[in-house]
Amino acid sequence: MSRPTLDFFFEFASTYSYPAAIRIGALAKTAGVAVRWRPFLLGPIFKAQGFDNSPFNIYPAKGRYMWRDLDRICGGLGLPFHRPDPFPQPSLLAARIAYAGLDEGWGEDFCRAVYRAEFADGRPIGDEDVLRDLLQGLGVAAEPALVRARADEIKARLRAATAEAEQRGVFGAPTFICQDGELFWGHDRMADALAWAVGLSS
Amino acid sequence: MSRPTLDFFFEFASTYSYPAAIRIGALAKTAGVAVRWRPFLLGPIFKAQGFDNSPFNIYPAKGRYMWRDLDRICGGLGLPFHRPDPFPQPSLLAARIAYAGLDEGWGEDFCRAVYRAEFADGRPIGDEDVLRDLLQGLGVAAEPALVRARADEIKARLRAATAEAEQRGVFGAPTFICQDGELFWGHDRMADALAWAVGLSS
To answer: How many CB pairs under 8 A join A and B?
Structure first.
């Protein structure tokens, strides 16, 4: 019997995607679930809803709460947490590099490295030098990776992932979608999503 | 040593307030936490954020997800669930009656009865006859309760609770606020809020 698959839609600028991305690999392995890492961009989806910025910036009370909530969550998980400034960070280039890496076996490690740089170390993940440094830290040749990340084929895949996310009902990140279409939104629903995926295969 | 106190801010039209209101009494008793039931109105708070309707109606993808998520949550808890139509239900009179009842010892039972009527039985909780029926079901004389609910003093208390909620950082419901001001939003943070309250007293 093949392992159940879970689509993991995440955005590098998304705060709650940080603990999800760091944790999902180990939890999915224990659960026997294969995870498809799907970086996408929230910007176009927010824009379609009429937002020209993160809702956490547009609605200050909600934003203040989110930072406090994330701080508590990371504290409980033993994850270092540093609030990115500015927020949100530009995530386009990182997402394109991630697609290049997911083809070549270093994509998931790269995604985790981006989240750690952004939310643990407070580094600007829109900066090409920072991304180059992260690639080198993974033993990946940075320049060829950056060239591939800017290829039309990769750009089209990121656009397609974003369109697919929106079409399947994604309105925020992280979002987990099971093979039957069941959707779970938020780091705090990740365990439910894995359990649902397992239930489908039994 | 006195028991720690937790402020429970809820709105009768709020979907996730339903499982919270049904469950918080027993969970708080086990935890040794005293709960102050604080009905308030989300309408003025949403209006200040620029919403003239529930965000779940304004953002359809988010709304569709919420209904599915709530259905799963209620299923997991063994709570019956019926989607109110129309949504949101008018909650003003129920909230005023609740304040009258909280003075007289039947307020918490009334709140649970309203949520069950709305989300388990699909009854229109803005309808005075429905509220009268719920009061009678609790053995409360309905007419005097309705008269008290419409007294200026009760109206002012509901306005004050709403203003206090907004001033303390509430932007949605249910919200739980501990004595040190620590705020937790959502049914899925209720256990964390109780644990935080307990931690303050030890």
So the answer is: 37
SS3 B140: coil
How many alpha carbons lie under 13 Å from residue A178 in its C-beta half-sphere? 21
Question: What is the model's pLDDT at position A126?
Answer: 98
Q: Is B139 exposed, middle or buried (0-12, 13-18, 19+ CB in 10 A)?
A: exposed
Residues of A in Cβ contact (< 8 Å) with B62 = 171-172
Task: Say if A47 is an interface residue toward chain B (CB within 8 Å).
Answer: no
Q: How far apart are CA B39 and CA B9, in angstroms?
A: 6
Q: Name the β-bridge partners of B175.
A: B9, B185
Question: Any CB–CB contact under 8 A between B199 and chain A?
Answer: no
Is it the case that residue B72 has pLDDT exceeding 70? yes
B1 has a pLDDT exceeding 70: no
pLDDT score of B2: 80
Sequence-separated (6 or more) residues with CB below 8 Å from residue B24:
B8, B35, B190
Interface contact A169-B69, CB threshold 8 A: no
pLDDT above 90 coverage of chain B, percent = 97
Interchain contact, A189 vs B69, CB within 8 Å: yes
Of B49, B65, B192, the CB nearest to A171: B65
Phi, psi of A123 (to 5 degrees): -90, 150
Give residue A10's Cα distance to chain centre: 3
Q: Up-side HSE of residue A194: CA atoms within 13 Å toward CB?
A: 18
- Cβ of B171 within 8 Å of Cβ of A49? The answer is no
pLDDT-derived band at A201 (thresholds 50, 70, 90) equals confident
Instruction: Please compute the mean of the pLDDT values over residues B119-123 and round it to a whole number.
Output: 98
The pLDDT value given to residue A2: 80
Question: Looking at the predicted structure, is the pLDDT value of residue A39 above 70?
Answer: yes
